[in-house]
Fold:
Amino acid sequence: MNYYKRMEQKFSALKNKKDVIILAIESSCDETSVAVVKNGREVLSNIVASQIDIHRRFGGVVPEVASRNHILAISNLFEEALAVADIDKADIDAVAVTYGAGLIGALLVGVNFAKALAYSLDIPLIAVSHVYGHICANYISHQKLSPPFACLMVSGGHTAILQVEDYFAFKLVGSTVDDAVGECFDKVARVLDLPYPGGPEIDKLAKQGQNIYHFSVSNALKNTYNFSFSGIKTAVVNFVHNKMQKNEQINKADIACSFQEAVTEELCEKAVKNAVESKTGKLVVAGGVGANSRLKEKLLAKCKENGVDFYAPVLKYCTDNAAMIGSAGYFMMKKGLGLADINLTAKANVEL
Ligand code: KG4
Ligand code: ZN
Structure:
């Protein structure tokens, strides 16, 4: 019997196993991470090796440099994840891996490691979408949270409003028609000469500033659940360049604050409106920009006003990590989804 046929049987048997241990791998961008997750909710270990310091000198992620550093890190992280979880290789029931979306060379490192591991241990391999992982970061942060709920997905590559109907059933309600919001945070930070990654830097700096510039998000999508952020990004970048050309002083904190106020307002308005309409009584934020303190503050306040419960992942599960992939792998397995063959390959873009 070939690998996939054998795994079909093992995979479906896992559905009824009392405790399922998943070894998860994430390498889609500049974080190499390996985690051990029990029953989709309990994180036994979550080791993250960040490459931020390596890429900072370039002002952003250099894909080839990221791939090479994933290769250097992954074996040791695997050993560490097992040691911290206090388990042996033989205790792993399945391997879950991010196969997309992300940087292709970076993804391939995790995918190939996962394939070799699953094949050598003769256990199932589960292919997980990175974006789905971000949603599942909430299941490990809030033990009682379950679908259905409304979701605001805000990361470096995605900005969307989703209806999460079941653990693996979603409806796309709206999305960005141009830039992802994380991308805009990073670009604005760059023009302000702040270190990479820009989002957390803008978040920090904005606390010392005031919204004196009143930048605004385009009105064209006002009555929809779609977003457009490229206009405000360009407006801020042009504003700063203009000031610099004229040798005029700029107050970076005020610019950061004015930009952040406008984008968080837009995200908050639409996300909470949809949550109310969804009648689920719950709004969940997911993805790296979900770490933004002002966004969370606004979402919490507006949810309260509207009788909606608000959930955000704890900070360490908000940005890229393997624990969320382990959680996603478990819930996919429960639905009989995601079993991959040994010819699994990485994809730069994937549907949710
Ligand atoms: O989800 P993530 O870690 O990776 C992707 O899947 O893209 O998101 C990374 C993005 C980056 O653009 C980063 O600047 C942004 O999340 N980010 C933040 C904050 N922390 C991370 N943006 C705003 N405020 C933050 N505190
Ligand atoms: Zn991510």
User: Anything to note?
Assistant: The first strand starts at residue 21 and ends at 26.
